Amino acid sequence: MGRIRRSVTTYRHAPYNLRSRSRVKYDSLSSLLAGDDNPKEYKKRKILPTVSSLTLCAEENAAAHHTDVYQTVYLVLRRGQPFTFRIKFNKKLDSDENVRIVLSTGRSPYASQGTLLFFQLRNSAERFGWKMTACSPDEQDYELKFVSPSDAVIGKYSVSVQISSESSVKTSKLKETFCLVFNPWNSEDDTYMEGSAERDEYVMNETGRIFVGSKSSKHGRPWIFGQFEECCLESALHILNITDLADAALSNPVLITRAFSKMANSFDDDGILCGTLMPW
Which region holds residue 261: left if phi is over 0, alpha if psi is between -120 and 50, else beta? Predict the structure, then answer.
């Protein structure tokens, strides 16, 4: 008598509930970008909108932030001050489509450290002191208004956009970046300078004098600081990137100053500068 074979069908369960896709939480940027749909998983997928353009409004933002003198290819902004971006989608957003604007900075951006920030496009929210509001006349073109806290982490920020519906999710990292720096014009910033003459001298002035010599015999020499040239800002950011400071510590000007001082010392701390005993 033959044996009866029972067929068993195994169902492969989706890694998450499709109806709660928009509420999936990501703690790191890598997990966010890896959280997209696998097109082989689902046969019926809604075609989501895509980002047509992101405009950083560089001219008006830089003028308002006193950063229009920087000779960089990316926008430089000062923390604790409002700025405006404009984003355009290739079609109008449906009511069931959820859009999140994601800002990230540092070597390993994490939401728990305030270096990975999520903003709902249709709901104003505050994240680690950051605020974003959005307005649109047609659900396709949006004006995004941000305000960063006066103690925000400085450095380069990347922009990503996550679009999701009940059946699909898509995350795109955009090519546009901006750099956040300290703000001596903001009274709540630790680097604040009350007098305009001081700010002109110590922040905006690109030339000056450095004093050399001994205690009893010293004199000044003309010096070009060049702090607004692209190579200077890039060098400063690179030095910060190779220090042992945690990403979240890059909000503290005291810790950053100490790190720069350490990185400049070649003899004791394997820094980048070598001193000389030769006369000037």
Answer: alpha
Cα–Cα distances in Å, from 75 out to 55, 118, 128, 142, 278? 11, 20, 22, 20, 41
CA atoms within 13 A on the CB side of 61: 24
Q: Tokens in use for 211?
A: 């004093």
CA dihedral 156, 161, 162, 165 (to 10 degrees): 170
Nearest to 165 by CA among 50, 53, 45, 30: 45
The string of pLDDT tens digits covering residues 127-164 is 899 999 999 999 999 999 999 999 999 999 999 999 99
pLDDT score at 104: 97
The helix or strand, by DSSP H or E, that contains position 81, with its residue range, turns out to be none
From the number of C-beta atoms within 10 Å of its C-beta (0-12, 13-18, 19+), residue 199 rates as middle
Contact (Cβ atoms closer than 8 angstroms) between residue 13 and residue 130: no
Tokens 């069908």 appear where? 9
Report the percentage of the chain scoring pLDDT > 90: 64
Half-sphere exposure of residue 237: CA atoms within 13 angstroms, side-chain side: 22
What is the average per-residue pLDDT within 208-236? Answer: 90
Q: Is the model's pLDDT at 2 over the cut of 50? A: no
Task: Please give the Cα distance from 270 to 259 (Å, whole number).
Answer: 12
Average of pLDDT values for 217-221? 89
Angle at 143 between CA 163 and CA 87, to 5 degrees: 45
Output the pLDDT for position 136: 93
DSSP letter at 169 equals: E
What type of residue sits at position 64? A
